[in-house]
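pipeline stage [seq->struct] | target=Sporulation protein | organism=Halalkalibacter okhensis | residues=83
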Amino acid sequence: MDSNLGYLRESLSNHLDNHQICQRIYHKLETKQYKDEDEFVRDLEDNEATILNLVLQYELDYARNEQDEKRVEQLNGVYELLI
């Protein structure tokens, strides 16, 4: 799995209890073999992309506050494809 998608999967695991769409996105990451984050983003439905955008904004803010530059870099790779 692409390392950006690995970080994304880990971040999504923090939101599985909060939203069914997060569960669906997480399931896609677990069951499908994406070659990179671009292929993954193209596979998202509109509502999934919208929710993922919100989750990534939250996770990026958290990573910045924690000064976790590696996580920021990895998550930002997916976030930039969404916007």
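stage status: PASS
auto-comment: Helices lie at 3-12, 20-31, 37-42, 46-65, 69-82. The first helix runs from residue 3 to 12.
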